[in-house]
């Protein structure tokens, strides 16, 4: 694995002046905290004695040392363990948030009064005052409610559930942007504010095309066959995906089938689309004699949108991921232990990316987290 992404600036990280307390218990809030830590904020994860729930969420390491999800969400953070219910917990919590610039919490978390300059970010599944406020939810529920699941999969089969936690990562990103906006406003007024981010609203924002379509003509996105010139082809060493809407003749040249451009079945845009499946049969036969690299290189020369379908192990080993520092190795300054990590998903101009410490150790340990 590669080292950290290139740091082309000696300027301090964008958020290095901020102190953040992460009281959240799920993916969305802790991802927001991770993004804050990535750009220099001092982020402390507050856990109960049993540890935050993400420590018990899959996937887990093969050696039984913990949750890979927890590691991903909390790299770059320190951790403290709060006492159980009662005055001791209240005292510890008041002390923890006393010097904070930002507090990230779940909607059900009780907090002591915060200083007026603190930005408080409340993360929840649904808006607190909406019709779904009392609903329970998970990733599948949010994908279904947003319309994404209804639009995914074959038209003659059930909807497909997109794996992972994309709805919660979307909400964590929304929370991060909302916090930054509030901090920007604080520079003018000197006052903090409460911002809210819900998974439900984040997915609705991502599905803006669905909303626009329904508002315009009352229809909803379906799983009907895509009418554009889209094809997935098997090559000698893998698969490619091709989107050929701009120049049909160029697609024929890509597969050394120039004669098809003059074929009456394909000589007009309408007929090209109508008889696309017949063309794909020809392309598929010829693609089997080519490598994915050959197809993609020729497609790029002809200005055709085309890419190889990569396996995850191929992506990890790819030159592009290596150069961009997508996958890295973090080393604990305290114990020397190593931990794989993902690099930044976006860049802030002029700011290095600093989430370069392993995730906190076991909750309740004598020295939880990494020393600062």
Record keyword descriptors for this entry.
Rossmann fold, formyl-coa transferase, domain 3, 13 helices, alpha/beta, 2 domains, 372 residues, 11 strands, 15% strand, disordered N terminus, elongated, disordered C terminus
Briefly note the structural class of the backbone: alpha/beta
Query: What strand order characterises the main sheet?
Result: 3-2-1-4-5-6
Question: Strand tally, please?
Answer: 11
Using the coordinates above, name the CATH class of the largest domain: Alpha Beta
Q: What is the CATH topology classification name of the largest domain?
A: Rossmann fold
| Count of helix runs | 13
Q: What characteristic shape results from the CA principal axes?
A: elongated
Task: Calculate Rg over CA atoms.
Answer: 25 Å
Strand content: 15-25%
Main sheet makeup: 6 strands, parallel
The termini sit apart by 25 Å
* Series of secondary-structure elements, N-terminal to C-terminal: EHEHEHEEHHEHHEEHHHHEHHEE
Low-confidence sequence ranges: 1-8, 366-372
What number is the mean pLDDT? 87
The CATH superfamily of the largest domain is known as Crotonobetainyl-coa:carnitine coa-transferase, domain 1
The helix fraction, in percent, is 25-40%
In CATH terms, what is the architecture of the largest domain?
A: 3-Layer(aba) Sandwich
Compute the number of structural domains: 2
Provide an overview of this structure.
The protein is of the alpha/beta class. It folds into two domains: 19-217 and 321-342, Crotonobetainyl-coa:carnitine coa-transferase, domain 1 (Rossmann fold); 230-309, formyl-coa transferase, domain 3 (2-Layer Sandwich), CATH 3.30.1540. The chain is 34% helix and 15% strand. The chain is built from 13 helices and eleven strands. It has a six-stranded parallel beta sheet with strand order 3-2-1-4-5-6. Strands 7-8-9 form a three-stranded antiparallel beta sheet, covered by helices on one side. The longest helix has 24 residues, at 166-189. It starts with 18 loop residues before the first strand and ends in a 30-residue tail after the last strand. The model is unreliable at 1-8 and 366-372 (pLDDT under 50).
């Amino acid at each position: 694995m590669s080292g950290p992404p290139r740091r082309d600036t000696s300027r301090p990280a964008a958020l290095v002046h901020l102190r953040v307390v992460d009281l959240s218990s799920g993916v969305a809030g802790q991802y927001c905290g991770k993004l804050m830590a990535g750009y220099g904020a001092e982020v402390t994860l507050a856990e109960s004695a049993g540890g935050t729930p993400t420590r018990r969420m899959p996937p887990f390491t093969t050696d039984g040392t913990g949750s890979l999800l927890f590691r991903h969400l909390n790299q770059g953070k320190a951790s403290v363990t709060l006492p159980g219910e009662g005055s001791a917990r209240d005292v510890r919590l008041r002390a923890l948030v006393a010097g904070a610039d930002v507090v990230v919490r779940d909607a059900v978390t009780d907090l002591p009064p915060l200083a007026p300059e603190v930005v408080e970010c409340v993360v929840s599944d649904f808006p607190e005052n909406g019709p779904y406020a009392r609903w329970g939810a998970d990733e599948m529920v949010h994908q279904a409610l947003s319309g994404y699941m209804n639009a995914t999969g074959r038209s003659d089969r059930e909807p497909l559930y997109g794996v992972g936690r994309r709805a919660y990562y979307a909400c964590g990103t929304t929370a991060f942007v909302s916090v930054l906006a509030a901090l920007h406003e604080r520079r003018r007024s000197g006052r903090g504010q409460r911002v809210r981010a819900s998974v439900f609203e984040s997915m609705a924002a991502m599905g803006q095309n669905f909303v626009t379509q329904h508002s315009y003509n009352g229809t909803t996105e379906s799983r009907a066959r895509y009418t554009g010139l889209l094809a997935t082809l098997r090559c000698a060493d893998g698969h490619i995906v091709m989107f050929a809407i701009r120049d049909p003749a160029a697609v024929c040249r890509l597969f050394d089938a120039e004669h098809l451009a003059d074929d009456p079945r394909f000589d007009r845009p309408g007929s090209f689309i109508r008889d696309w499946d017949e063309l794909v049969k020809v392309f598929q036969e010829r693609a089997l004699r080519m490598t994915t690299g050959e197809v993609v290189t020729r497609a790029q020369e002809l200005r055709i949108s085309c890419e190889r379908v990569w396996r995850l192990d191929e992506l990890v080993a790819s030159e592009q991921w290596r150069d961009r520092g997508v996958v890295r190795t973090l080393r604990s300054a305290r114990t020397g232990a190593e931990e794989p990590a993902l690099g930044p998903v976006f860049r802030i101009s002029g700011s290095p990316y600093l989430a370069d410490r392993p995730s906190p150790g076991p909750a309740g340990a004598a020295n939880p987290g990494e020393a600062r």
